[in-house]
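Structure first, sequence second, as always.
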C-alpha cells in the first residue's frame, strides 16, 4: 500500500534535472540488438504486437510491465519483468530493491517507455537504467 508518492516524485524531479548530464548515444536500427519495452498492463496488447514484429527482425526484446493489481497481470509465453503495485512497491512509492536490480541488469541498446509518468515507479527506474539511448512518452 502506497501512503504517498511525494518522495518518489521529488526523486524523479532530481533525476530529470540530471538527465542532460548522463551519456547519450544515438544508434541506427541496424546497430540495435537489445530493446527494452516499458509499459502498463492496459497497453499490453499494443506492445505485444510490436514485440512480435521486432522479434521477427531478429531483435532481442525484454519487457518490463507495471500492473496495479494481480488481476491485471498479462499472460504470455514470453519472459517479462513484472512490477506489481500491490506487492513490489513500498509505502513511499519506490520499487523494491530486488526488482530495481533485475531491471537495471536487463540489456538494452534502446529503451522505449510507453508508460511515461503515468507509472511513477517505472519512470523512476527508466531514468536510472544505464542504457544510453532512451525514448518514450511524457
Amino acid at each position: 500500500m502506497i501512503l504517498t508518492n511525494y518522495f518518489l516524485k521529488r526523486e524523479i524531479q532530481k533525476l530529470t534535472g540530471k538527465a542532460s548530464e548522463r551519456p547519450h548515444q544515438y544508434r541506427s536500427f541496424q546497430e540495435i540488438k537489445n530493446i527494452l519495452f516499458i509499459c502498463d498492463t492496459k497497453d499490453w496488447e499494443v506492445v505485444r504486437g510490436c514485440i512480435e514484429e521486432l522479434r521477427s527482425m531478429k531483435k532481442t526484446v525484454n519487457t518490463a510491465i507495471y500492473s496495479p493489481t494481480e488481476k491485471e497481470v498479462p499472460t504470455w509465453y514470453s519472459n517479462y519483468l513484472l512490477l506489481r503495485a500491490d506487492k513490489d512497491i513500498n509505502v513511499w512509492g519506490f520499487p523494491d530493491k530486488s526488482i530495481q536490480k533485475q531491471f537495471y541488469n536487463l540489456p538494452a541498446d534502446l529503451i522505449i517507455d510507453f508508460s511515461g509518468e503515468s507509472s511513477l515507479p517505472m519512470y523512476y527506474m527508466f531514468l536510472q537504467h544505464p542504457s544510453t539511448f532512451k525514448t518514450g512518452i511524457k
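Margin note: The beta strands are 34-40, 60-67, 81-84, 110-113, 134-136.
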